[in-house]
Amino acid sequence: MTRVAVMGGDGIGPEVVDATMHILEQMELGLEFVRAEMGLACFERTGHHLPKETIKTLESSRAALFGAITTPPRPDPDHRSPILQLRNHFDLYANVRPCTPLLPELGKVDLNAVIVRENTEGMYTGREREEDGAVILERVVSERGCHRIVEKAIDVARSRGMHKVTCVHKANVLRRSDGLFRRVFYATMENSGLQADDMIVDATAAALISKPSVFECIVTLNLYGDILSDEAAALTGGLGMAPSANIGDSFALFEPVHGSAPDIAGKDIANPSATILTACMLLEYVDMKDAAIDLRSALVRTLKEGDRTRDIGGTLGTMRFAEKVAERLTSD
Ligand code: ATP
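^ thats the input. predicted complex w/ adenosine-5'-triphosphate below
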């Protein structure tokens, strides 16, 4: 039986994950769900942000569904985010974030794109050191890292019927590092049969608002992708509607784009749609495409028929909303 690890984490993480699991368990998918833990609450209970048992559970699973974690209020300088540790441990080098409003009325602009972000290099190496009154960060852009993220973007674009991949960079300033990325991008795209173009990251931030329809698949480096995908989420229904996947060659971890949102945690108002859409991506990954289509259409129907959480104009609580989605699934 295919095993899937499930981790709620902190803040609204457990709420949106439990709501999503309520639906997945009713779908009788034949998947084995195994609970694991990490994050701040886990640290307070066990003394570890990312216990060894959690890594073992993930190693014995095909994929994981994860909510969110809270960064410790006063992290020691050597604190390494568990999610960054997992991205490195499992070499989850691609972060895939679809940026399309689920219903046209939820979108602020006409954006129908996907962002494929390099997930293990760039600014997020964690290699910071203090030297002569300054803090120096090692930013890594490797040929191998660039090549494999562009290959992944080609796969993602093809699987979504897209025709173009846009490389987003800052090669006008970061001539060697981002210059390498742009060069590898065009070389890798050469025989892909897809159109290739590139754009500077600051111009992209503006164009997502002023000319959103020029984008199909965006491939970019770690920090740029992190920032642009939050912008894109805000343009396509808000953080409560934005799913994502961290994908490697043999394992994938699926998480909503939003964080643990401590301001709304415990209030039963978090929108679980981002996590439900994240679960759809997970189902596709474990070769359950039909189940993914059913779940997505039940979610669309629920929203269209006016059952919504507060962030998108409704009144339903987190679990109540999930129950409404589950009802639509069983009424098919
Ligand atoms: P963290 O430090 O864990 O990243 P954060 O509050 O800084 O948490 P997010 O969790 O991404 O960042 O949330 C930003 C804001 O977006 C929250 O304050 C919340 O109001 C809103 N938000 C995020 N996720 C949801 C959701 N699922 N449903 C409703 N609102 C949400």
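The longest helix spans residues 143-159.
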